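Hey, quick one: can you model this chain's 3D structure?
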Amino acid sequence: MKVLLLKDVYKLGRAGDMKKVADGYGRNYLIPQGLAVLATAGALKMAERIRVQAAETRAVLNKELSGVAEQLGGLTLTFAAKAGETGKLYGSVTPQMVGEAIRQKTGFEVDRRQIDSQPIRTLGVHSVRIRLTIDLIPEIKVIVHREGETPEQAVAEAAARAAEEVKERVEEGTKAEELAQPETPSE
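Sure thing. Here's the predicted structure for all 187 residues.
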């Protein structure tokens, strides 16, 4: 099904674009939500007007939220959690928890659907992207540490674990290369 986007849709396109989408996605989500219309001849005539209006709206929104994006860009959040010996959490740090922490720290309300991250299930430092607009996507740092430890200890532990994983992969790669090389007969 071909649709004309009326609004910017994350990971699909900008307003005024004509896109080919799955029938169910268009019929059950895009059209009922008012994000798109069927791409008919009449709708295609409106495309340029929609594109211009959306560009103006996007510019105003980007200007308003640029200060928030700067605030969020340097933000570091820390979470204390229970974890096992291997660094896996007994629960997870969800996007909703990240949104709540952002609200407490900056006063800016971020919906959990704007947070571009799966639930965090391991200790260490994680990058989380916040989709303010289609153009403004600041990245924040989330540090998850064990209860009773400091965030610095968690960062050091995560770095050590990452170095160990790299070392294991290098060793596995070396073993694979040795096995792949044919043996030459000795004289």
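One thing worth noting: Residues 87 and 123 are 5 Å apart (CA to CA).
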